[in-house]
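As promised in the previous annual report, we have extended the structural survey to additional targets. Below is the entry for DUF1540 domain-containing protein.
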Amino acid sequence: MGVQGAKPLAASGCKCNKIRKHGNTNPCPTIKKYRGAYAMRNRLECSVTACRHNDHNLCDLPGIKVEGPGARESRQTCCESFEPRNGGENSLCSSCGCASAETAIDCKAKNCTYNNDCRCEAECVCVGCSCSDVAGKSGTECCTFRQR
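The corresponding structure token record, generated without further manual editing, is:
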């Protein structure tokens, strides 16, 4: 999934890490009604600016997929929902304007402590880059991954 030997770039600056350290009184993940069904929603911060769904570190998708069924560390995971921006790094965001701090996370990283029946139960999730030049989903990672 992620590039072996590369360090995650987003983990240290992620606000989610600060929330975990200092505590949070807001119940997260939350359960909200979406398209007629109730879905778990996680707070998500994404630093993958090369993704067309990234709008100021928020995701414009109602849900993302995290892959890494055999992952033992975060760099072995990836955001399956990543799509490269058209027009290069400085192009305007192709977001629909519906970016949100909360999204549903379908997680296939079965060895992650936050995974409960393919649903992420982490209070806050950070998706970042596992290499300096993200050209595809294999350059992304779930920085929140913790092995069971």
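The radius of gyration is 14 Å. Confidence is low (pLDDT under 50) at residues 1-12, 17-29, 33-38, 89-95. These points will be discussed at the next consortium meeting with the crystallography subgroup.
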